[in-house]
Amino acid sequence: MKKHLVILGAQWGDEGKGKIVDLLSEDYEVVVRYQGGSNAGHTVVVNDQKFVLHLIPTGMLHSHTLGVIAQGMVVDLELLVEEIRLLEERGVNVRDRLLISDRAHLVLPYHKLLDFLLDKKDRIGTTMRGIGPAYMFKYGRKGIRVADLEHEDRLYTKVKENVDFVKDLCEKVYCEKSQIDADEIYAKIVELYKEVRECVTDTTRFLLKTSKRILFEGAQGTLLDVDMGTYPYVTSSNSSALGLSNGTGLPPTYFSSAVIWGVAKAYITRVGEGPFPTELKGPVGDLLREKGGEYGATTGRPRRCGWLDLVALKHAVEVNHLDGIILTKLDVLDGMEEVQVCVAYQYRGKRIEDFPASVHLLEEVEPVYKPMKGWSGSTVGIKDITALPEEALEYVRFIENYTNTPVVMLSTGPRRDQYVWLIEKEHAHR
């Protein structure tokens, strides 16, 4: 039996990974977040209580799990401490079960300021959480890591140098006055660090040595991957399986026996700017948004909605070498007379069946649709595959045949208990 499981997004994020990770964490002892930061928003409904988690691994809503914030994440200490306190107020013990990598980089107030100025100019559509600039500083060798918090004199020097650097950028490049204060930032992170200091460790060493079963929880989605997504309209980390090794510090061979499942909606959405071949800007798109509750968990922004893009989904299958697909929000399509799926793109008279690297090409393509008969019956809360409307099952099978990948589970509602396995559960992790 394969030991570890990877759950990641197979679209532009917002696929419903939070609910899936929460559900499957029941069978795992450790849950690891390994990339991104507070730009992620994983929503879970447990016993009619809604939890929205940005930094804490979603699987920690189970009392038996240990959560790991690994080295590939960028951590906003203020938001992390706030999230810990909010969970503890709701009866979830966090600090005794959380490990934070000493190699993880910090998101600081000057990163958020830069995020605002950069997006004001380039209109990427970021969450303004400072994630991109934090990664910029990391790769520019100006980042501050959790381990640096142990050395207060050197920490102050680094903060002061970075604040002076950002002030120069603001005033000399963007012609904006900056109000950021190095002393204030330094004092605040020193105080915040005291709240989580006991959680900090070498998480790579822990993961290498533990014999426990591990679930790796991806954030965002494959089409937002900084290398394999719709660059530059992407996140600032490898949000596909490419981020597993560098995000955890574990060797690539470590994941050779892991099961990798991608979560995808029965349609597709994206937030912010960037190409979207199957976007629906009329009444059908509005219907999907309202029925699916398509508003960002992190920003509250309305999501752009469209028909399922199988060219893009197959790209995610290939990039991640997915063993299976978990399909969510099939119920949003309930009651439609006809549904459509994109099976190719048309570009200047040429048919394209592979997801292109060029964002300019992707902006110009026309989707080639296959119409499929809709279903009148409800799929909400279905627990047995035999209860699925025949047309809904045909829709699922078409996705499987096109991607050459099994759909292993359907999520049939927002609650933890609303799902149905399409394979035998005891064989699911093999």
UniProtKB/TrEMBL annotation:
Give the record's cofactor note, including how many are bound.
Binds 1 Mg(2+) ion per subunit.
Question: PROSITE patterns annotated for this entry?
Answer: ADENYLOSUCCIN_SYN_1, ADENYLOSUCCIN_SYN_2
Catalytic machinery residues = D14 (proton acceptor), H42 (proton donor), K138
Q: What does this protein do?
A: Plays an important role in the de novo pathway of purine nucleotide biosynthesis. Catalyzes the first committed step in the biosynthesis of AMP from IMP.
Q: Which PANTHER family match?
A: ADENYLOSUCCINATE SYNTHETASE (PTHR11846)
Protein's cellular compartments: Cytoplasm
List the keywords (alphabetical).
Cytoplasm, GTP-binding, Ligase, Magnesium, Metal-binding, Nucleotide-binding, Purine biosynthesis
UniProt enzyme class: ligase
Q: Do you know which InterPro entries this protein is assigned to?
A: Adenylosuccin_syn_GTP-bd, Adenylosuccin_syn_Lys_AS, Adenylosuccinate_synth_dom1, Adenylosuccinate_synth_dom2, Adenylosuccinate_synth_dom3, Adenylosuccinate_synthetase, P-loop_NTPase
How it assembles, according to the record, is:
Homodimer.
Its annotated pathway?
Answer: Purine metabolism; AMP biosynthesis via de novo pathway; AMP from IMP: step 1/2
Where do the annotations place IMP binding? D14, E15, G16, K17, N39, A40, G41, H42, T127, R141, Q220, T235, R301
This protein's name? Adenylosuccinate synthetase
Q: Which cofactor does it need?
A: Mg(2+)
As its record notes, the protein acts as a catalyst of: IMP + L-aspartate + GTP = N(6)-(1,2-dicarboxyethyl)-AMP + GDP + phosphate + 2 H(+)
Per UniProt, substrate binds at A297, T298, T299, G300, R301, P302, R303
Q: What highest taxon heads this organism's lineage?
A: Bacteria
The entry sums up its family as follows: Belongs to the adenylosuccinate synthetase family.
Q: Which GO terms describe its molecular function?
A: adenylosuccinate synthase activity; GTP binding; magnesium ion binding
Where Mg(2+) is bound, by residue?
Answer: D14, G41
Q: Which organism is it from?
A: Thermocrinis albus (strain DSM 14484 / JCM 11386 / HI 11/12)
Secretion signal span? none
Q: Which GO terms describe its cellular component?
A: cytoplasm
